[in-house]
Amino acid sequence: MLTLLVVVPAIVGVIALYSKDLRVDLALLVGTASAHLLVTASLWIGESGPELDALLTLDTLGLLVLSITSVIFLIAALYTIPYVLHGTHDKPVALQRFIPCLLWFLSAMSLVSVTQHLALLWAAVEGTTLASAPLVYFYRRRGALEATWKYLLVCSVGIALALLGTFFLGIAGAGSSKGASDLTLSGLSRAAPYMARPWLKAAFVLALVGYGTKMGLAPLHTWLPDTHSEAPSPVSALLSGALLNCAFLSILRFYQVCVASGDAEFARTLLLMLGMASLLLASAFMLRQRDYKRLFAYSSIENMGIMAVGVGLGGAASYGTLLHALNHSLCKAGLFLLAGNVLRSFGSTLAQEVRGVLQRLPATGILLLMLLLAIGGVPPFGPFWSEFLIFQSAMGAHVWLGVAFLSLLTVAFLGMAGVWLPMLSGGGNLQGPRARESWLSFLPPLALASATLAMGLYLPSFLAVALHRAAGLLGG
Amino acid sequence: MTGYADFILLVVLVLDLYVVATGRLASCVHASAFQGVALALLPLALWAPGHEGRMDPQLLHLALMSLGTLTVKALVIPQLVLRAIREANVRREVEPFVSLHLSVLIAAALVGISFWLASVLVLPIPAPTMLVVPVAFATVLVGFLVLVSRKKAVTQVVGYLMLENGIFIFGQTLVREIPFAVELGILLDLLVGVFVMGIAIHHISRAFDHIDTELLSALKD
């Protein structure tokens, strides 16, 4: 089953590369995405053992990330249909590679979630960069080209450091007298208590810097706002909603080894520091942001910061962190898709050139308002609960930490509201006639917004159980 | 057999310094290709004789891996980069932010730091040779230097390749439990990575008429 999740999208991607008809490509895309979601759902019901010499092993943590990826991918795939068929682009060359790259991207992200072999994990994360770089360069503009180059180079170099960290862990493991020291999570965890501490710590620092670059933690985030704002909207939704979690999962794998070594305190301190730095930097840039897609990109950095802080606090906050990963993905993917609707209707990513969204695109406008409140942490939406749990732990750890955390969240919310409220309501000469919104352009974000609301009102028990079990893997 | 291994590692170190010192772009690429050859031979020199004169049971794995490294790092990737240079029609050469003399001095300092780092970070396993860790660190650090101190997109790719070479020295000589398929996957990633970067360089040179990364700075806050 696990093998299928990785191999099938990759093969269908190759088929799509050679098919000439765009409609066939789209059918392949949506078909594969639906099948992927069905297989993922079946993994919730029946346990799945290790496959391919235990290279592929699924635990609850991986299952959570895999499920988020699968859901967001199907929704982005549906949204892609009108985007590709009635888009503003006119280069068939770009389209020919677009759908294959999307499928390879799915394959690489699935591999990240279902492997616990750290070297294979690295290869998969690098694979996600390579598959998604051509997607960023979909609009053949100079800005997109610059974003693609930064993305490729900064992330490849960053991830190269993570490979060094992986080898350091192998060296640390080989030095411990107990247990086999292969690079699987279970082998490393068994060897962890006996590892040479300097090598283990160096390994974690390198992995945090490497995968932290990919996750967009400050000060390693420099590529993220460019890439997420220049990419076409469904791709931005995937980058923010699915890919960032994969990078986060990679850091968590190293963190798990640190927990097994019984010496995770330094790892938590580092995560806490990087997390607070991300919160600080992102909220500062959100206050003076003029480009609404960049604003969402900085909001992603902010939320990755929240998640890093959550793991850094440890204990009960681990549960809140995983819940927040889920909530953030649903919200942010929805927001990027809706930003795509706004961009298509107004033709600009500058906030000052967009007014009266609620009049011109009522469905998009209402959903935007909902998701903006949700991502800002307003009850009764999902993110309120996860942010509240992390805030509670922060207060428990230190009063000033809690106060700083809450004030930075407030600043970020004000930044978001300050940009979007005039865009949603305002009128004046920029206000156009009411535009026709196609079903497929607002049903996918509607599904995400409803899910966010539902998560806030009632968390299904199977999900709560899984979140608790996954938090247990993080020592929480 | 550490005599051969030490010799190979010294060659890698000299090539590090050569890349920093040379002003010709093509020479940088050739140097990284020679590093690829050295890297392919290194595991064989270290492990093939095996312990107590017996052949290593993993010899086939080692030989295949060497062949893979040789093909990817010494043949295919340099060809890709050289083609990117030809297509981008690079006239002026390396163009560093800091002068070549200064970068050689910095590189020498980095080599010193690497030997110091290796003396601080003691290997928990018996090292095959004393030079492995310092040379690996030096290659990683000098790769970084090339990456940040040069303007051209192509030289940045060379810096990235050196960084990867340094990491490979760690991986191939010290960590022996990586399955063959995974090692191939890592090599494949590197290959596709350079391929995609080559395509990006091609587009950059067409859109901007040159490949100075300084001009890739329109996106900012």
Written overview of the protein:
The complex is a heterodimer of chains A (476) and B (221). With 476 residues, chain A is an all-alpha fold. Helix content of chain A is 78%, strand content 0%. Chain A contains 19 helices and no strands. The relative contact order of chain A is 0.10. Chain B is an all-alpha fold. Chain B is 74% helix and 0% strand. Chain B is built from 7 helices and no strands. Chain B is globular. The model of chain B has no long low-confidence stretch (mean pLDDT 83). Classes of the chains: A mainly alpha (476), B mainly alpha (221).
Quick take:
The complex is a heterodimer of chains A (476) and B (221). Chain A is 78% helix and 0% strand. With 476 residues, chain A is mostly helical.
Oligomer: heterodimer
Categorize the overall geometry of chain B.
Answer: globular
Provide the structure class of chain B: mainly alpha
Number of helical stretches of at least 4 residues of chain B: 7
Mean pLDDT figure of chain B: 83
Report how far apart the termini of chain B are: 56 Å
The biggest beta sheet of chain B is recorded as: none
Tell me how many strands of chain B there are: 0
Low-confidence stretches of chain A: none
Query: Largest inter-chain interface?
Result: A-B, 55 and 44 residues
Task: Assign a percent range to the helix content of chain A.
Answer: over 70%
Overall body shape of chain A: globular
β-strand percent of chain B reads under 5%
Largest beta-sheet characterization of chain A: none
Number of strands of chain A: 0
- Main structural class of chain A: mainly alpha
Q: Work out the strand percent of chain A.
A: under 5%
Round the Cα radius of gyration of chain B to an integer and report it.
Answer: 18 Å
Number of helices of chain A: 19
Query: What is the succession of H and E elements of chain A?
Result: HHHHHHHHHHHHHHHHHHH
